[in-house]
Structure formats: C-alpha cells, structure tokens
Write a structure and sequence with these properties.
The complex is a heterodimer of chains A (466) and B (221). Chain A is of the alpha/beta class and 466 residues long. Chain A has 10 helices and 20 strands. The termini of chain B are far apart. Classes of the chains: A alpha/beta (466), B mainly alpha (221).
Chain lengths: 466, 221
Amino acid sequence: MITTGQAITVSLPGRINQGVVVLAASTVLLVAAGVGFGSFAFLSGAVILASIYAVANLMRGPSGISVERVIQKNSVWVGDEVEVLLKLTVNRGIGPVFVRCPIPEVMELVDGSNLFGVWKGRGPKTVDLKFKFRTTVRGVFTCDPVLWEAHHPFRFRTPVHEIAGTPEDIVVRAGINEISRVTNVRGLAINPNPMMDMSVIGNQTTEFREIRNFAIGDSVKSINWKATARKSSGRELTAQDILVNDYEREGKKAIWLFLDTTSAMSVGSSLVNPLEHAIEAAGALSFYYLKRGYQVGAHLSNRNSRLIHMDSGQSQLRKISRELSELSSEEGSYDFRRSVQMCRRQILRYVPECFVITRLDTEEPLQSNQIPPGLDSLITGVKALVAYGSRGHKSVRVNIVAISGYAYTAQNDEVNSVARVIRGLETDLISRAVRRYGVNVISWDPTSSRFSDLLLAHALSGRGKR
Amino acid sequence: MKLTIMSILIVCLRVVTISAVAVAFGISVVGDWLARQIPFIPGSPEYISGGIAVLVMVAVIGLRWNSSSVPRNLTLAAVGTFFHVPGALQGSGANWLNVAPSLTTDIPTQEPVFVVTFMVVIVTSVLGLIIDSAREEASDLLRRGLVEESVRTIVKQAALLKVGTLLVGLSVISVISFIPIGPPDSLPPAVLAFVGVLVIIIPVVVYFDTWTSRNVSEKEG
C-alpha cells in the first residue's frame, strides 16, 4: 500500500480575473451615468451591481486543502484492477475543488473517473474519492503526483492549483497463464521430462529451496521453528502456521528459456505485439515448470545483463517475472548463436530442455526445405545446443515457440487475410526445414489461441501421432 | 430535457428584457420625437419607438448569438442602458441639475417606470449571465471527463450562490426605498450617500485587501 499526502495550509487567493473587471467597470459607469444624468434608475442598477461585486469579493475560494492518495497495490499482474483512493480535505472557503489523479496512459479506467469535482460549502469538508484502473501491459509505470485546483465560486480570481505528493511506481508483471497437464491420454511420451520422475519422490539434497507450509508426511525435523514463531506471533498456534524448510531434490530437471526481444518482435500495437505474447509464454512456462520443482533459467535476447541463472522455487519465479516486466525491445537482429555461446556454461552443467521463443516468419524461404539465410544464426545455435548435450549422457531437447508476426495485421482486411495465409504456408516450410535438426517447433498465432491451449493441443496431437 | 428548460428560461428572460427596453424607450420624450419623424408608419408614437427598440435589441441578440456568456449579456445590458438614457435625462436629475430643461416633462410618475424597467434589464441580464455561464461551465466540465453527477452539483451550487448574491443586491435596493427622500423633483441625498459608500469605498477596501496576496502570487507565477 502506498500512501502519500501533503497539506497545503497557506491560503492562496490568486489573481483577480476578467469577470470582476467587467462588473467593476459596469458599476463605475452606471454610477457616473447616474450622477451625470441625475438618474435614480442608473443609480439603482449601480447599487445592484455593486452589491454583487462586494459580496463576491468578500467570498474566499477554497483553501487549506490536503489530498492523500492511497494505492492499494503497487505490484500487480497484467489485467489486474487497481483501486485508488483519494482523501480530500478542504478546511476553508467556498467553491469548487477539482482533483486529478494522473495514471499512466496505457492503463484503462474501469470504474469511475480520475478527475473529480467537489463543491465546498460553508463548513470543512472531507471526502473519499475512488476510482479503479486496469493494467493493460507489463512494465514499471510511474503515477504522477495528484493535482488539485481550487476555483473562486464566482470565477473572479484565477484558480489556485497545487501538486500534492510524489510520483509513485507501479510494477505490472506479465500475466501467467496456467498450463494444463495432460493426464488421461495414453501413448508414448514425446517429452523427455515426464512429470512424475523426480522432485516429489527424489531424495532431498542439502541445497535449500524455500520455506513452505507444513503438509502431511513432512518430518518434524524439517519444521522451521523460528519462521513458525514469527508467523504465529501474538496469537494461538494453528496447523496452518507451521512452516517447514524445503530442500532441492535429486534428479531435478532443468529448463532454459531463450527469449527474442529484438525489434522484429515489436510489430503490432504497443499493447498487442509478439514481444508481449513472448513474455506471456515465457511467464507461463516458468510458472509451470517451477511449480513442479524444475530449475528454470533464461536468457533474454542477446544482452549479458539479461541472463537469469538456473534456480528453482518461488523466488526464481519472482525474479523471472521482474525481469520480464522490465523487458523492452532492442534494435538489431536476433543472434541466437551468440546467445547459446553466452549460456554455454549453464547448458553444459544442467543439460536443460530449451525453449526458444522467437519468430520464424521474418524471412522468406528461398526454396522448399531450405533454411533462409536470415535464420542461419538460429540453426547454428540449435546445432551448438545439441552438440553441448551430446557430450554427456543426456541430450538437450530444443523447442521453438514460433510466434506468428503476421497475425497482428488487420483481421477484417481481405488483402491482409490472403497475405496471412500465404505467409503461414511459407512459415510452415521453414518450420519443416527446422524440424530436420531435431527441433520441436510449436507454431503459435496469439490472436487466435492462448498459449496454454496451444500446448495442450500440441501435446494431444503429438501423442496421437505416435 | 434540462437543456430545453434552460433554453425556454433564457428566451423568457430575453423577451422580458426586450419588453422593458421597449417600454422605457417608447414612453421617453426622445422616443416620442423619433416616432413623429417617421410619418409613413401609422400608429401611436409609443408603439413605433418601442418597435424600433425591439428591432434593435433583437438584432443585438442575433449578432451576439454565438458569443460567450459575458460579452453576450454585457452587450444586451449595454444596449438596454443606452435606450434608457432618454428616460434618465428627463428624470429628477433634469430638474436638479437643469442640464436639459427641454426634456423635462409634466408627468413626474414616469421616473419610477424607468427605474423599474432598468432594474428589470439589469436583473434579467445578470440572470442570463448566470444561466449561460452555468451551461458553458457544465459542458466544459463534461468535456474534461468529470462525472455528470459532480458537474450537476457544482453548477447548481454555483448558480444558487450567484442568484443569492443577486437577491442581496435587490434587498439592498428595497432597503434604500424605505429611506426618506429629499425635496420633490430632486435626487434623494440618502441614496447618493449610500451609493457613494457602497460603490466607492467597499471595492477600494476589497481591492487593497487582496493587494498583497495578488502581488505574491504574480511574483510566484
């Protein structure tokens, strides 16, 4: 919860506005005319205007204003609704007070408005103003300070406006689609990492994994008494309060993610583009495998700083989510070969199953069953990965999640539809050529299916074929 | 629906303003003289001069139709005041200052009529300004994205406050009317004294009261 507040106690009346000049001038002219012509009619009119002038001038606009902003959550997921509460207090004066709470442009207002108008009567007024916005895209966004503006009731003076509070950051993490497991389909496994071969039944190592809630079957020795005492401090100890230390299991499998963040992934709009969907896929895969005790590491494009070392548990999921949230596209083309070289040590040590999330439709195929020159780097990288794995007993399995970039063109345009179909056929040729190197290509059109549904369909179709 | 009611109210106010101006100009000596210069129009001179005033006022309203609230109503009030000048010249001041003896009439009851018509012009112009500015403010706030309920509250409260201030002005006039006036056919000295205090002293005091803070905010700006 973020709370900011600033009390403005100094009364700032502001400058006299044009309206008062018109009224004053009319009054003076009528007085002059009344005295000059000796007319009681003009003097009567002058009295009315002078009375209005005097009363309006004696009134003070709202002052002694304080605004406190409370944002319920400063770390949310994409698609979450964030409630913002503004506590407005006006102590003195009469007139309207306007409050504006800026939100990042890419956010979507879902309930209420972030612009408020409150009429301040005679007594002090305190009012709670609420609105909600929905996060539409991941990233770290800054909410600018709250602005308030106090108007004189007759608009005789220019409005007084102030800024309250400080900018606040909101971290929006990429959404994670939970991937379903296929359990009731019999057939030969095409995935070298079956779900039940490790973690739960493996022997515990001495490598600490995380602290979790006690479950039936846990050893009493594994209870972390200090953490349990902290959790249940000040109240009676219950079964839900007991926390145990969890250690890594032997035989734990590893997953490595390669994510293409080059400019080729930025086609489409700022909200819907291949990069956003690649991040969604990376988040879903991380969540799925980390939840099952796998070790997951990642390399985000061709930058050294974006290498996330192999680890497991919730902390690793948080780390990956944070890195994904701060990801932005980069200039240049994707050099997968270089990425593999940078991750060489990790690959050799863990021999992980690799997922490469990129686009295959950036290049046109020259001939059937031939790899376009632009994808040479990808193929060389795949060969290197397979070579690293073959040094030991295990082998590195490579999956390419090929996001369809042409799916982001306008859907209702017939020309675009034809181009999309042709491009899809061409990409199929490329995919077929890439599969020759032992790569599992998962073609994904994000505009027509969710990633979790795609994996499910892929798994089912794969088992059926075998 | 509300806009329609406001539009009807504005039209009624304009009709009242035009009628008051027409009456004031029609019964004035200048209006009478002007009507007699137009022999080709049959009818009573009061109606002819009143009709001229109506035409001019309608033309002014038409010309200022798309203006903002302040110039629209200010122009209307200014033209209405202009048509009251003949009436003012033949009032008590004419006898008092003896500046225009030819305009002095034998009917002393005309001056209260001019007072009433001019006050009607002032009050209807101010009311028109209040309604027009409220409509402008409401559309402006709605355009900026303010919730309709808040807009309604703010505009309603502001309009009520302004109408209340206008009522204060009218009550001051009614208080003045109880003050004994001076000799017949002369300006009431009590009125002059009161107007002098109200019109000159209070604005000066108010102006200097805000002098310091205005300078501070200007320097800060």
